[in-house]
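Hi R.,

As promised, here are both runs. First protein below:
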Amino acid sequence: MRSGSGVLSYCFKGSACLLVVIGFFGLIWLRSSIRSVQYELGALENEHWGVLRQRMELDADRATLFSDAKIGAVAVEKLGMEFPDRTMVFYVKRDRGSIPYEAAYKR
């Protein structure tokens, strides 16, 4: 009986040692994979902040392109538009009811 339990004891001790070694290497693998995920996450965060910075710069450029002064300059230079002469503006009076409207220069 003693020899049978010795073989079982050796098998149990061997499997326990093997389990400890596999667990140790598994723990090392898990820590290294977590570390690589952390590095990848850091790189993605840096890329995210770079893209946000670029977006803010593009928003600022867009705001300057859509400013009133820029639109006015493009309208005058490229489209040939002019600002109206305020002395030559027609005024139409609408408070006369059913009488026909009159248009005239107002000085």
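And here is the second one, sequence first, then its structure tokens:
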Amino acid sequence: MMRGALLALVAGVVVAVLLEIVTATPRSIIDFTAFYCAGSVVRDHGDPYRAQPLGACEASVASEGIYDVRGVVMPAPLPPYALAPFAALAGLRYERALMAWRLLLLVAITATIAALRKVARLPWLAIAIALLMIDAIDDVSQGQPVPLVVAAIALAAWALSRGADRWAGVAACITMFEPHVGLPVCLSLYLYRPAARASLLCGSIVAAALSVIMLPASTSVEYVTRVLPQHAASEIPWFFQYSLTNALYSLGVSGEASLILGSLSYVAMLSIALIIAPRAAARLDEPGLLVALPAALVIFGGTYIHLSQIALAIPAALLLAGRAPGVLARVAGVACVLLTVPGIQFGFDSFSMVWIAAGIAGVLTALLLRPPLVVAAIAAVAVLAGGFALHGMHPVRVRAQHAPTMSALGAGALADESWTRFVRAEDPGLREHQFELLAKAPTWAGLGLLCGASALSAFAGVRGKTKAEAALPDPCRG
């Protein structure tokens, strides 16, 4: 009976997720709209990082404007080589391109489930549920490329577990869609798996060639020297940031100091990840941790971390939950549950997100931790109560008549200048920022627990042991 109730709850969550994705509009699909338009600008031999003609394309696709605010130019801060798929998609009408991109993302999520099922040795249902909230709802509905990067991490881990280091290198190259996460993944492989180096070098050559073919070399230089710094600075007070930079700013630290400290924390976490990953991989006899742990650890802190990128920590949490012994596996399981709680979405979106998150937290607690049923119910109720308490915390404050307009910017201005104006106009003040930090607490707690479990796996003297499949039963099996 309990198994039937669990499956019924899972079915309800999945249906709600599909409805959330299907009912999204260009107003909310802001990321894909920006990337699609950047690809269109590239096809027309323009600069995709400038306010125009990027803004004109976005206005034609999402006429009601970003968050119902007209005139805001949403930047597309991907490196030149990562715009290649969107340049290809820009040859299609927007609706068809969106459908093709979403299908690709869903295929990527399916590949992630299949790969992690082999490596983590957890029930496929647990893996799928862990990916539903952020990787499916948040990323697919907005058109983020993050599911491709999560799939690349999972496939690289699977390849390493089979001794196919060259294919692991190929998969790792795909993680460079998100350079601040892909760099630690590729660096870890390069340092500790010599057989993957040829693939990584070939991937670097391909990326450089794509950048030169698609855009002038000066645009690539502009991306590194102007676009990235200005985009990081533009989002210092942005509500949707999970970075250390945003947290420090919310606590009263100046924007410049917050950026510097966020950058230093990224370097520190990268260094820690490169020390922990090989030790944990050796002690637990799981080479996939060489790619999963660096991706997870570097998003704890930093200068630019969105909710969509939190999904990049989930493969590491699932690997530890499935392969670490005893208490460490449970700690990683708790971390995984916390990572699926999208606190900032509660303050911005509809009540449907609260119910979905509560269902996911309850099901995932039951599948990963196998506690008494009352504990899983408490987890679901806690998320539900927190979601209702935080709902409506951050309404859009800018109205169309007061919005920063494209006409105020010259054609040569960076798109980030428009975005900076919008974010600053949305800035509610330090007191509100400090309250909003509460919404991010579950995610930060999950990342902290994951970092702790990773460190203990590397240094506490534990040794991995193969878990019997029966230890984590699949509720879909008879």
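A quick note on the second one: The two ends are 12 Å apart (CA to CA). Let me know what you think.

Best,
J.
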